[in-house]
TrEMBL record:
Entry function: Component of the exocyst complex.
InterPro entries: Cullin_repeat-like_dom_sf (IPR016159), Exo70 (IPR004140), Exo70_C (IPR046364)
Keywords: Coiled coil, Exocytosis, Protein transport, Transport
Taxonomic lineage of the native organism: Eukaryota, Viridiplantae, Streptophyta, Embryophyta, Tracheophyta
Identification of the protein by name: Exocyst subunit Exo70 family protein
Gene source species: Urochloa decumbens
BP GO terms, sorted: exocytosis; protein transport
Family of the protein in this entry: Belongs to the EXO70 family.
Domain of life, per lineage: Eukaryota
Span of domain Exocyst complex subunit Exo70 C-terminal: 266-621
Coiled-coil features, chain-numbered ranges: 363-390
Length: 634
């Protein structure tokens, strides 16, 4: 509601009074503010005066604090320097004595000196100690030379060649016992080799510590060269003492068979000693000495062993490429057996790219020997078949070629496991054993063919059959008594025994048919004879006399010849005599019983009946004795 009328003036007065009061209040507040500002200004002036009076005191206090800090720092540095100088003095004494007495203390002194050098070179506050730093560096240089010299002396002292007697002493006893046995080397797959002491076990940790220090000092090349030269020289001298020598192809081809076999026998043993004993020991020592060292030990080992190993392999390679005579097959098998046996060791010892040349050379030698042996076997098969020896066994005995081939085949079984391995490497279908059987069967077949050809040289067919009987019987008997029986089988033996018997039967038919004909009743009649010459039975006495004369003449001729012939096997000889006697004596006895009386009643009966059946049997016992053994070459 709007207010009107006389109330308005009263309100205006009230407002006026309030405005006056407010003005008075504002004037009073302004006076108070001016008073506060004046008071604050006065306080600020007093504080500034106090600060001005205190500032010099603060500066002096800060200067004193910094001075104390510098003094403390200087004392600490002096103490640290004195401590380092003490370390240098103690380390210097150890370095001057050298590492020989106490390697551990020497290496500790080197580490301490390196710490001192780092202390002075990394702290800019010690530029005034450059003389000390130079002294420390000189001592470190000296220590590096001394540690290198110690390594050189130790490697020289413990890198002497090993005498042959000691090396052969490390071979397994079965292998030593077989020395000179052509079939034993290469078959010792389960033999245990003793490990030699190339470097004493107590020295190896010292050498390892020194090698570590040399590499730390940056002397890897010195370490490498010292070790390589020392161990390489020891290995080379050890092999030289064993008798290894480098031979050319011409040297080997000019060498007598016995000398060559001795050299190969020596080589196989040296090869085993080198790989299983010397190189295995060298590899082990190299790994131990450089264990934990940043060092190319594979290359070092390859260089120290390289020349010696390649010289050994070179001999084997020259032999493999130089000889193809079947006389040397066993030597090739012997060498192949050894190389195959060593293959696993070669892979381990010659591991890594730096040994790849030696590893490949060993593998290639094994392949070359395998190829040479297989080619020699093929050549042997052909040589047996085409043997052109004109030697005639005048007594019908066993021909040298038969004895040689049979002994050769029997000797092959000394290398049976080696040959089976050889065939396994080249087989894709049939087994190695069947391949071996095929080889032996082919050799024996070729021998039989060759003997058949040689039998045709005899003018006397009976002697030809004696010759074949003797030689085939020798083949059968030898195979039956050897390991070849298991390869060729009973069928082969039975088949060839029948051939022996066939030749014995053929001999009896050819040699005795004519004389047995004289004892035949047929043709003894008296037709055409005078009446006084015919007996009451109608038998012609003159015919009987002629029969006895013919018998005596033929038997004496057979006795003269066949007592010179030979049947070396007693059982075969006795059986052959018995077979003759079983045919001849009954016929002779029957002829005498039937017609002997005609002769007895005449003149000079002993002129016709010269032998009793018993005497005849005794004379048969002289057959095939080889009383005049001889050979004739045409």
């Amino acid at each position: 509601m709007e207010r009107t009328g006389p109330g308005l003036p009263e309100d205006m007065e009230a407002l006026s009074r309030q405005a006056s009061a407010l003005r008075v209040a504002l004037e009073r507040s302004a006076e108070n503010t001016e008073g506060m500002v004046a008071a604050l200004g006065s306080f600020d002036r007093r504080v500034s005066a106090i600060e001005a009076s205190v500032r010099p005191i603060q500066v002096r206090s800060q200067a004193m604090t910094m001075a104390h800090e510098n003094i403390d720092r200087t004392i600490e540095n002096a103490e640290a320097t004195l401590a380092q100088l003490g370390i240098v003095r103690r380390a210097e004494a150890v370095i001057l004595r050298g590492p020989h007495e106490n390697l551990e203390s020497f290496l500790e002194a080197v580490d301490l000196l390196k710490g001192v050098a780092h202390f002075f070179s990394s702290n800019k506050n010690f530029k005034c100690c450059e003389g000390v730093l130079n002294q420390v560096n000189n001592l470190l240089t000296m220590s590096a030379l001394k540690i290198e010299e110690e390594f050189r002396q130790l490697m020289g002292a413990y890198s002497k060649p090993i005498e042959p007697d000691r090396l052969f002493g490390y071979l397994p006893k079965p292998l030593l016992a077989s020395k000179g046995d052509s079939g034993a080397v290469g078959e010792q797959t389960s033999a245990i080799y003793r490990n030699p002491t190339l470097i004493p076990s107590g020295i190896l940790p010292l050498l390892n510590d020194i090698a570590r220090q040399l590499v730390k000092d940056g002397n890897q090349q010195s370490c490498y060269k010292i070790y390589r030269d020392a161990r390489g020289s020891a290995l080379e001298l050890s092999l030289r003492k064993l008798g290894i020598e480098k031979l050319s192809k011409d040297d080997i081809q000019r060498m007598q068979l016995v000398a060559l076999r001795v050299n190969i026998e020596t080589w196989t043993q040296i090869m085993q000693i080198t790989v299983k004993i010397l190189l295995a020991g060298e590899r082990k020592n190299c790994d131990q000495i450089f264990d934990g060292v940043i060092f190319n030990k594979d290359q070092c080992f390859a260089e120290l062993a390289g020349s010696s190993v390649m010289a050994l392999l070179s001999f084997g390679d020259t032999v493999a490429k130089s000889i193809r005579s079947h006389d040397n097959l066993f030597a090739l098998l012997q060498m192949y057996g050894v190389m195959h046996e060593l293959q696993s060791e070669v892979e381990v010892i010659f591991q890594g790219k730096f040994c790849s040349e030696m590893r490949e050379a060993a593998l290639n030698l094994t392949k070359s020997l395998a190829q040479a042996a297989q080619e020699t076997l093929v050549d042997l098969e052909k040589a047996v078949e085409k043997n052109s020896s004109k030697t005639i066994m005048q007594n019908g005995g066993v021909h040298p070629i038969a004895i040689e081939v049979i002994n050769y085949v029997k000797s092959l079984f000394d290398y049976q496991s080696t040959m089976e391995i050889l065939f396994q490497q080249s087989e894709t279908g049939s087994g190695a054993e069947s391949h071996l059987a095929g080889v032996i069967m082919k050799i024996m077949q070729n021998l039989q063919s060759n003997l058949n050809e040689k039998s045709k040289q005899y003018k006397d067919p009976a002697l030809s059959h004696i010759f074949l009987m003797n030689n085939l019987h020798c083949m059968v008997l030898s195979i039956r008594r050897s390991q070849a029986k298991d390869i060729l089988g009973d069928d082969w033996i039975q088949r060839h025994r029948k051939i022996v018997q066939q030749n014995a039967n053929q001999y009896k038919r050819v040699a005795w048919a004519s004389i047995l004909q004289t004892l035949s009743v047929r043709g003894t009649g008296g037709t055409g004879s005078s009446p006084s010459d015919v007996s009451s039975t109608g038998v012609s006495r003159s015919m009987i006399k002629e029969r006895f004369k013919s018998f005596n003449m033929q038997f004496e001729e057979l006795h003269a010849k066949q007592s010179q012939w030979t049947v070396p096997d007693q059982e075969l000889r006795d059986n052959l005599r018995l077979a003759i006697a079983e045919v001849l004596l009954p016929a002779y006895r029957s002829f005498i019983n039937r017609f002997g009386s005609l002769i007895q009643r005449g003149k000079n009966p002993h002129k016709y009946i010269k032998h009793s059946p018993e005497a005849l049997d005794q004379l048969l016992g002289q057959f095939f004795q080889g009383q005049q053994v001889g050979e004739q070459k045409q």
